[in-house]
Every structure is written in C-alpha cells, then in structure tokens.
Design a protein that fits this description.
The complex is a heterodimer of chains A (399) and B (296). Chain A is an alpha/beta fold and 399 residues long. Helix content of chain A is 39%, strand content 15%. Chain B is an alpha+beta fold. In chain B, strand 6 and strand 7 form a beta hairpin. Chain B is globular, with a radius of gyration of 21 Å. The chains are: A alpha/beta (399), B alpha+beta (296). Bound molecules: pyridoxal-5'-phosphate (PLP) and FE2/S2 (inorganic) cluster.
C-alpha cells in the first residue's frame, strides 16, 4: 500500500515479525490449549509466553494478572460491569466527558439502570480538575474509569494519582490505556490501578485481541461465563494466533520504547511546528506539554474536517478528523466540545498520529501539502475572505 | 470512508460556481454550525423574467455538502424562481447519482438555501421549520420532538411505523433503541404499553394485500422496467422480500455501473407508488451503503 499513513491512533500495521511469530499457530500448532495431548500442550506454552511478554510491557507483578480478551472495548465493558457486580451496594461511577465511546456509551446505558454517573469536565487544554474529582469520591463510588491518554488529542490524565485517591475512598479504579500501552513506559506494580484495558491493534498486533489487566486480589465478576479459560475469568477458546502475535508485539514495543519517545516525538514536533508556521488560524488542541509522543491534533478554523481528509487522501495522506461528518453523526467530536473548542474550529480538527514506521520524508511531504489544501477549502468557505475571517461575520439562519 | 459516487467526487474536487457573486440580488444563508454545515447561496435574478441568470455558493461543510452546493447552482441556473423552487432535495441527490443515507441532510441544506435566497430576493422573511429537540436519528437528522409528535398524531406502535412516517431508523438502524424508548414513553401517555414485535400499523391493516399479492405487484413493477434495462444490456432480479426491504440483484451492464444507484432509486420510487407504502430496495452486492462508525 502506497501512501503516508498518519492515522496510527485508529489502527496500526501488523509488524512483519509479529506475523511471522503467529503463522505456525494457524497450521502446525493448531491445537486447543485446553486439550490433554501434546497438540494442545505446545500452544498452552506459547500463550504462557505471550502472557509474560505482556506482563513485562505493563510492568505487572504477576503474569496471572493478564487476561486475554477480544478487544479494548470488551476489556472496558468487563472491567466496569465487574466492578458494579462485585459491589452491589455502591451505585455510582466516576468517569470523564472525553472518554472513548467504549466507556461513555456503556456509562450512559448504565444510567438507565439506575446508576449515577459523574462525568468530570475538562478545561480548554483537556485537563481534569482533581479537587472536583476528590469531592465526587465517596463510599457510593463503585468504580472510577479514566483513560490514560486521550485518543483524539493524546493528552494524558494523571491516572496514577487518581488511582491512589480512588483507593483511599475504597473505590475500584479502571483505566482505558488503549492509546498509552506501547507508547509510554508503564509500571503497574507500583500503582494502585486495579484494572487496565489494552487493545492489540494499536501496537502493531492484529485487530480483535485485547487484554484486561486485573490486579491480584481485586474482586472480579466475569462477563463471559462458560469454560475455564483464562482461569475462568474469560470463557471462550483462546484466540491463540492473536495472543501469540500480541505477545511478540509487546516485546517489540518494549524494544522501541526509547525510539518512540525520542525519534517519533521529534518527527511529530517537526510536523506540528511546520504546519502551524505555514497555516494562519490553526492551533493545537489538547495539552501540548503532556501528551502521547506520536499524536498531534490541529484545528483549522472555518473549514470542515471531512473535506480536508478527502483532499489529503487525494495526495495519499491518511489522517482522521473530529468533524461530525466523518462519523456520520451531526455533532463534532465530544472531546473538542468538552474542551470548549468553538464549532467553527471543532469541525476542522485533524489528527495526525505517527508510528515507528513514520519517516522524515513523509513529514516533509505533509508539511508541504497541508497549507495548499487548507487555502483551497478556505476559498470555498462563507466564513473566510482573502487572508482571514470575513469582517462582517457570517451568521446563517438556524445556526 | 464514505462510498461517494463519482459525480459527488467530481463536484467536490472541481466545484462549479464557487465563490462570491458580486452582483447577486438574492442571498440565502442557512446551515447549522453545530452540524458542521453552512451555506451561502447567491443568485442573480433578472427582475423582468424572474430567471436565475447566475448562481454561486460558499460552503463550510463536508465533501457531500460542497458537492450538493455545486450541483444546486448548476441545477437552478436558467430556471425561473418558481421552477427552481420545485427542485427537491431528492432531485439534488439524484443529480449527484445518490448520496449515502447519512448524508441526505446535505442536500436538505441546499434546498433550504434556495428557499432562503428566493425569499431574500422577494423581500420576504424566511424561517425554517426545524424542530429543536435531541437528535435521535443521525442518518436523517430527525429529532425527538418530531418523532414524538408523529407518534402522537398517528397513534404509531412500532419502530417500523416511525420509519415509515418520518424516515427515522431507515438508514443504519443504530437509532432503533432510541426510537423504542420514545415509543414506550408516548404509548404510556395514551395508556398503552409498547410491545416489541407488534406488526406495524400498515402491516396490521394493509391495503387489503397479502404478501403473495405484494410480491406479485413487485414483480410486475420490475417486469415493467426490465425492457429499459435490457436495452442498456442489463437486468434485474427479485431475490427476497423481507417486510419493507426488497432485495434485488442487478446483472449485466447495470451491475456496479454509475447508473445503478440512480436506476434503483427510480425503481424504488415506482414500487412505493404501486404498493402505497414505504419500502427500501437493497442491491445484494455489499458496499452500496456505507456504514458509519465512531472515531477510532
Ligand atoms: C481510547 C480507546 N479505547 C478503546 C478503543 C477500542 O478498542 P477496540 O477497537 O480494540 O475495541 C479505542 C480504539 O478505537 C481507543 O482509542
Ligand atoms: S441513525 Fe437512524 S437510521 Fe441511522
């Protein structure tokens, strides 16, 4: 596939070495790990190895704290529902307004079942107010679910600190770390984080494999009940090939961690500075001082994101947008709205997310192409005139 | 990625009549910045004849919004105002060889801009008739107020009814849960309880047609368009009828060609007229309708 892929927060390319590691488990090593013969035995061993590779990436104390699931979304649902089931007398959930739909949609659905959900707001840089969080914590809080890094802006939340506060209040703490795992070093054994979600396809493993980290001793109620796989905590015959793939990907992510936080970060910074310098009325969303090394989200005022993506695509450049139109919804990204980004900019946000495969030449090319595209669309915009916004503001009916 | 027709792409990449029209005498500004669409339509009308001599647009919006605006300006040029006002949003979509269902609101905006520009030229005040309620069906931009009112006015009992009367739920179907909740609420007001699986009003009291009769009617309609398709080297076959959804396969020169979507829309219209009910025609080759998902 030709082209420049700057949409690694959406999904990543499976590394060749990961594919290589997986292949034998489709054919020669096809056994069911639960079986009582040597076909199954070897596969069981491969899963054990993968579990330890993931344990190392997460900095978990025990390999038994790693539960393989089918995706990040399943891990999120399992964690939150388990916490509610395990503590039936606690009826409140604390989360944020900028979570991924994997958490938000579940929470709004739980509200209908009588749970009280507190959605912590963020400021204009996407930061939480910890004093307010502290006030919300009580003996009614069953679980706190706060993402490690936001998928749209890359902004970090202080989850380690927040987990300690939850722990002090006797509440369970879950974090959706789907975007953070593999990009930033983790050391879960030194934290009070009870549960953490991982998704394989964000770190060069296949789609359809995830992990739920469950700290030893944390009370748990399975979502899928049936066989005794994953120590009875997640029934269903293991997705052996993908588990092996995720193990390998975890190992490779460990090796690339330094590169990710130096070289990838340098390229991201160059891309961002290059675009901002050449495009008037554009700005970075989220917190530029505390975010994922690979992500930058830029708002281009007075134009719409899907139109930008279509033109980028014509140049072979893949990125994504928080505009309403790309998702078929009529509202722009809830993350941009939560930060109070005005509609005229929220619809024009574009996320560029790099990976260890990104190159300097690609960055240079994108810096060269973007300003042209933005100028071309602004020429069509009723909000724009010449070099800036119209003097007499455009104010349509039904605004 | 959306599955846009070639015509939509062409009008997006090379928009016609974009930019300010200096001596415009009818200007319509419509849109909704929260929805990410806004459009200024500028008309130059000849006062003696009411003929639109020129039309330009400026649009803040997605690919299909820009393409719809471009198409609209091409369509109204040379028409009198009264003729132009007959252009419906379906006409705009047809002109572009169809829009994905979730994008139909882009053509609606074009139509509104036209009404607003004509009103502006005539010195009238134009006000849109949008209801302001929580958006339930994103595919067709239909809000809770509209759905509630329609359920009340027509004593509707099923999601299918709501789709037939308002279109809500007729696209990706992710709003069915939301529609059901409104049904539960409104039906409770009139002392009924919502029962899932209740046959829709139309099915319960059809225009005296059995399913077999319906299928025969559908076949007759297809038969009537067949000669035309064959002339173009194609054909159509009825595969299945599942309630309001009619599955067909297009073969020969028609399959996958640009005209397919257009042809199907024409046939769907014809079927609706014959059957006197809302139906949806679905070609079985996947990919004709793209599906929306959240931002990953
Ligand atoms: C923050 C976050 N959580 C959850 C998910 C969902 O992961 P999955 O696609 O594996 O279900 C994603 C990715 O789309 C994500 O970015
Ligand atoms: S949202 Fe209603 S049909 Fe898609």
């Amino acid at each position: 596939m030709e082209g420049i892929y700057f949409d690694n927060n959406a999904t990543t390319r499976v590394d060749e070495k990961v594919v290589e590691a997986m292949l034998p488990y489709f054919t020669e090593q096809f056994g069911n790990p639960s079986s009582m013969h040597s076909f199954g035995n070897k596969v069981g061993l491969a899963i054990k190895k993968a579990r330890m590779q993931v344990q190392e990436l997460l900095g978990a104390e025990h390999d038994s704290e790693i539960i393989f699931t089918s995706c990040g979304t399943e891990s999120d649902s399992t964690a939150i529902l388990s916490a509610l089931k395990a503590q039936p007398d606690r009826k409140e959930i604390i989360t944020t307004t900028v979570e991924h739909p994997a958490v938000l949609t579940l929470c709004t659905w739980l509200e209908k079942d009588g749970y009280k959900v507190h959605y912590l707001p963020v400021d204009n840089k996407g930061r939480l107010d910890l004093d307010e969080y502290k006030k919300l914590l009580s003996d009614q809080t069953a679980v706190v679910s706060v993402m490690w890094a936001n998928n749209e802006t890359g902004t970090f939340f202080p989850v380690v600190e927040m987990a300690e506060m939850a722990n002090a209040a006797g509440a369970m703490f879950h974090t959706d770390a789907v975007q953070a795992v593999g990009k930033v070093p983790l050391n879960l054994k030194d934290t009070k984080i009870d549960m953490l979600s991982v998704s394989g396809h964000k770190l060069h493993a296949p789609k359809g494999i995830g992990v739920l980290y469950l700290k030893r001793g944390v009370r748990f109620r399975p979502l899928l009940r049936g066989g005794h796989q994953e120590r009875g905590r997640r029934a269903g015959t293991e997705n052996t090939t993908s588990i092996v793939g995720l193990g390998k990907a975890a190992e490779m992510a460990m090796e690339a961690m330094h590169h990710e936080n130096t070289e990838v970060k340098r390229l991201r910074d160059k891309l961002e500075a290059g675009i901002l310098a050449k495009v008037p009325r554009s700005f970075v969303t989220g917190n530029p001082d505390d975010r994922l090394p690979n992500t930058c989200n830029i708002a281009f005022e007075f134009i719409e994101g899907e139109a930008i993506l279509l033109l980028l695509n014509k140049f072979g450049i893949a990125a994504s947008s928080g505009s309403a139109c790309t998702s078929g919804s009529l509202e722009p990204s809830h993350v941009m709205r939560a930060m109070g980004i005005p509609y005229t900019a929220a619809h024009g946000t574009v996320r560029f997310s790099l990976s260890r495969y990104s190159t300097e030449a690609e960055v240079d090319r994108v810096i060269a192409v973007v300003p042209e595209i933005i100028a071309q669309l602004r020429k069509l915009s009723p909000y724009w005139e010449g070099e800036g916004p119209k003097e007499e503001a455009f104010a349509p009916t039904y605004a | 990625m959306w599955d846009y027709s070639e015509k939509v792409k062409e009008h997006f990449f090379q928009p016609r009549n974009a930019g300010v029209l200096e001596d415009a005498n009818g200007v319509g500004d419509v849109g909704s910045i929260s929805c990410g669409d806004a459009l200024r339509l500028m008309l130059k009308v000849e006062p003696e004849t009411d003929i639109i001599l020129d039309a330009h647009f400026q649009t803040f919006g997605c690919g299909s919004a820009i393409a719809s605006s471009s198409a609209l300006t091409e369509m109204v040029k040379g028409k009198t105002l009264d003729e132009a006002l007959k252009v419906s949003n379906q006409d705009i979509a047809d002109y572009l060889d169809g829009l994905p269902p979730e994008k139909m609101h882009c053509s609606v905006m074009g139509r509104e801009a036209l009404q607003a520009a004509v009103a502006n030229y005539r010195g009238e005040v134009w006000s849109d008739d949008h209801e302001e309620g929580a958006l339930i069906c994103k595919c067709f931009a239909i809000d809770a107020v509209m759905i509630e009112d329609t359920i009340r006015a027509n004593d509707l009992v099923s999601v299918e009814d709501v789709t037939n009367y308002t279109k809500a739920g007729g696209g990706c179907s992710s709003c069915h849960e939301g529609i059901e909740e409104i049904l539960v609420k409104v039906m409770a007001e009139r002392g009924e309880s919502f029962k899932p699986g209740t046959p829709s009003k139309e099915e319960a009291a059809p225009a005296g047609m059995t399913n077999l009769q319906r299928i025969k009617k559908i076949e007759a309609v297809l038969e009537s368009v067949r000669p035309q398709l064959k002339r173009d080297g194609g054909d159509i076959e009825l595969l299945d009828v599942d309630g309001k959804t009619i599955y067909v396969s297009m073969t020969g020169a028609c399959a996958g060609c640009q005209m397919e979507a257009l042809t199907l829309q024409g046939i769907q219209q014809k079927l609706m007229e014959e059957l006197k009910e809302f139906i949806k025609i679905v070609p079985t080759k996947a990919g004709a309708l793209s599906r929306a998902s959240c931002n990953p």
